[in-house]
Specification:
single chain, 166 residues, mainly alpha, 8 helices, 0% strand
């Protein structure tokens, strides 16, 4: 699967940033925390979901700390919710992504397609069919076992709050 197919320009830039961050940090895979960090850097709509200000500053500070050293304990593992066994070949997996990050990318695309279908049915016309950063944010915070949710929780961010605004 082409991991940038069906993504808005902003989301494609965020995914590229997450990929660079994972490589730079020496991580084996892009995980949901890499995606969250990059989304916050590249997408104003995602930042707005966290009300900007002190909460966003605290979250970004925590993500920077994680990338500097906190993430070292994660480099030996694979992000997995435990719901499914981790296997080398996951159907529809995006190469280089953790199983949860790959599933989040798929759910973001599905969310965008569903939104476009609803818009077309309501007479508002269909969208461009591309997933946006907010779609990916909704997908990564939906799994309470994701590293992104762990990062949000440790940074003191109420996870249901951004999810409800998404």
């Amino acid at each position: 699967m082409d991991d940038d197919a069906g993504l808005s320009a902003e989301l494609a830039a965020a995914v590229a940033g997450a990929r660079r961050r994972a490589v730079r940090d020496g991580d084996r895979q892009i995980d949901t925390a890499h995606l969250l960090h990059s989304l916050l850097e590249h997408d104003p709509e995602v930042r707005a979901a966290f009300d900007d200000g002190p909460r966003l500053a605290r979250l970004l500070g925590y993500l920077v700390q994680r990338s500097i050293g906190y993430g070292l304990r994660w480099q030996t593992g694979v992000e997995d919710s435990g719901a499914l066994p981790v296997v080398p070949a996951v159907p529809d997996a995006v190469e280089g992504f953790s199983p949860l990050a790959s599933a989040a990318m798929r759910r973001a695309r599905e969310r965008a397609a569903g939104r476009d279908r609803l818009d077309a049915a309501d007479g508002r016309g269909g969208g461009d069919g591309r997933a946006h950063g907010i779609d990916l944010l909704a997908a990564i915070v939906a799994d309470p076992q994701s590293r992104a949710v762990e990062v949000l929780t440790r940074a003191g961010v109420d996870v249901p709050a951004p999810n409800s605004r998404v």
